[in-house]
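seq:
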Amino acid sequence: SFRCFGHFVSHATGGTTSIALGFEGVSHGRHGWEKPADAAMLLCSFLFGAFACGLIIDKNQVHLGGKALYGAALVGNALLLIGAVAAYDETEDTLLPACFAAAACGLQNAMCTSHFGAVVRTTHVTGTLTDIGSTAGRMAIMFLRKGCRRARLNVLECAEIAVDARKMLVLGPMWFAFFLGTMVGAYLQNHVGVYALMLPALLTLSVGLTYMLFRQRLKDQFKKMEGSRLRKEVEEINETLSRAQSFVHDYRLAG
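struct:
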């Protein structure tokens, strides 16, 4: 998007900064209102995409097979990217296609904001790298306090490390996927220009349509998997209670 449109369409922090700097520039006569107005349009487009996602997906946590219309959101994302390609004309102002792409980013970014306890943002990685660093730091200090010996960790510390490890399994691959996608996108843009956006558009469109067509089947499958998981957990709890009762019985007999 940046190479074709000349705008960072997912950089809401930079957009907000550009608006503020634009006001300062206007007040000192360095430029007109076009610069802050363009930044405001991109920011509002991103916000509109997130708002539209909130209308059709009412959960922050991913819940496939539920009432949330993930298929419609993915199809909408694809249509916005296709709209950006269709609106692009290198001889004219590129703000309109950039706004389409920004709305697609906002919609995609709002589809899932947490997973396995990790805060998820799919269109930028500042927060992702912050979470990777802070989570790794928490895990490291727990091990350092115990002399880097896992056997010395108590039950609570082991549970905290297990939760943080699950977060890292989300955050690490997500950062790498962002890096890989950027690199692939750059190579594609060199060969096909703005049509490189058609790759993510077609991917999200196919996934969205597949989800919409097989939503009920997926819902039934997820229910079956959830039922199996719950039965396994109940069996483990019953087994633990049985061992505890046996222990108490033997203790009383010994007393």
